[in-house]
Design a protein that fits this description.
mainly alpha, Arc Repressor Mutant, subunit A, 2 domains, about 5% strand, globular, HTH_TetR, transcription, transcription regulation, transcription cis-regulatory region binding, TetR family transcriptional regulator
Length: about 220
């Protein structure tokens, strides 16, 4: 029996994907799934591309051809995780709430909880506390695409729900929200519950939005 070509929805229509591209997409997903599972099990520093290839049941050269290097696989793994994470945050921001500020606090709390429950993030943070794990830079120092995506999402939401403030204020508030949330994920304050952390991040963002500006100072 002949296989049915993989199809993808495009503008409301089903567009056939060539078998080779369908295989590549599946292979890429399988490799990322294997890499995620192994990183969660024993930390990314202990995972080799050969092991990932074996677990995904593909050849090592195939993995290199698709991702270029171990660093390329690291980046792809973190970016896929971030995309899934941000989809959840976006849904959380759209949930009904008494006020926009309540909705923001609830979404930040959701993000903190999801990060704690995410096995890959938990593995990275645990290893980082021990002074290791090469995935951490892709969540922090090398994470500009991740941070930028989160900032765009939060900035758009802020501009929609806090229209009384100009774009400069909403941009700054979005940046504070994203950076403080990331900081609390990577290095959570031990004395804070997740709810307290979410409330503090929300308060900081509101402080940015509503702060008073005085006349320029002269030196």
């Amino acid at each position: 029996m002949k296989d049915t070509p993989f199809t993808a929805a495009t503008d409301g229509c089903a567009a056939a994907v060539p078998p080779r591209e369908a295989w590549r997409r599946k292979m890429r997903g399988d490799v990322l799934d294997a890499a995620r599972a192994m990183a969660a099990e024993k930390g990314w520093d202990s995972v080799s591309l050969s092991e990932v290839a074996t677990r995904a049941e593909v050849s090592r050269p195939t993995v290199y051809k698709e991702f270029g290097s171990r660093g390329g696989l690291s980046q792809a793994l973190v970016h896929r995780e971030a995309e899934r994470f941000l989809l959840g945050v976006d849904r959380a921001l759209q949930q009904p709430a008494a006020t926009a500020t309540d909705a923001l606090a609830a979404a930040i709390l959701y993000a903190l909880r999801q990060a704690r429950e995410n096995v890959l993030v938990a593995s990275v943070v645990k290893a980082a506390r021990g002074g290791t794990d090469s995935l951490l830079p892709y969540l922090t120092a090398r994470s500009e695409p991740v941070v930028a995506g989160a900032r765009l999402l939060v900035r758009s939401w802020c501009q929609t729900h806090y229209q009384q403030f100009d774009d400069v204020r909403t941009d700054q508030a979005a940046d504070v929200i994203v950076r403080l949330t990331l900081s609390h994920i990577v290095l959570p304050p031990p004395e804070h519950t997740l709810r307290v952390s979410a409330e503090l991040i929300t308060a900081a963002a509101m402080g940015v939005l509503t702060r008073e500006t005085g006349p320029p100072t002269t030196s």
